[in-house]
Amino acid sequence: MLALAAACALGVCAGLGFAWLWLRVVPPGTNRRFWSGLSVLTREMLQIEALDTLLALYRRLGRLAGAYVARNLAGIALACLPMLAILLAVSPFLPERSATCSSSGYCLLLDALAFETTEVPAAPGAPPYRVLRAEPDGVNPLWPLLSDAEALFFLAFVLSTLGGLLWRNPRHSLKPATTP
């Protein structure tokens, strides 16, 4: 039970860290400014008849979209660092996931899912693989892909990330969108 509470606490820390870092890289209003700028550019493109002006607008569109995508990718990469650090630090303490398999295809699949696999001869009427559960009393719809602790970690991560992103900060005023 203590391990599950620790998984929840670490998930909340990782989720709040994700939200905090994301909002530093992609501040509120970024999406609104991008879509407003995109609509202005689209309107201008529909009214232009000169080819050189149209190409200039396409260059502006490329810069606008490129900056938006780059900022969001940088936000994701930086914001995932706390979760990645926690997962790397805790992974040696997670229960081992093991399975037996009787065909090379199933063994390859289970190896790719980070299971410790043991190939056994095929028995008539037996399934081609068996996953051995480390937590016999666990109730987890995501098992065998995630253990109970991992599932709680990710659930707490998602919920705390949403809470952190939706929390209104009184220091940030809601400024109207401006176009570039």
Descriptive report:
This protein is mostly helical and 180 residues long. It folds into two domains: 1-95 and 145-180, no CATH class; 96-133, no CATH class. 61% of the residues lie in helices and 7% in strands. It contains six helices and three strands, in the order H-H-H-H-E-H-E-E-H. The protein has helices at 2-25, 30-47, 51-79, 81-90, 104-112, 148-166, and strands spanning 98-101, 116-119, 129-132. Strand 1, helix 5 and strand 2 (116-119) form a beta-alpha-beta unit. Helix 1 packs antiparallel against helix 3 and helix 1 (2-25) packs parallel to helix 6. The chain is elongated. The mean pLDDT is 84.
Mean of residue pLDDT values: 84
Number of domains: 2
* Shape descriptor: elongated
* First-residue to last-residue Cα separation: 53 Å
List low-pLDDT spans.
Answer: none
Our Rg estimate from Cα atoms comes to: 24 Å
- Helix percentage range: 55-70%
Kindly name the structural category: mainly alpha
Strand order of the largest sheet: 2-1-3
Main sheet attributes: strand count, strand direction, barrel closure: 3 strands, mixed
Helix count equals 6
Beta-strand segment tally: 3
Secondary-structure element string: HHHHEHEEH
Query: How large a portion of the residues is in β-strands, by DSSP E?
Result: 5-15%
List keywords for this structure.
single chain, 180 residues, mainly alpha, 2 domains, three-stranded mixed beta sheet, 3 strands, 61% helix
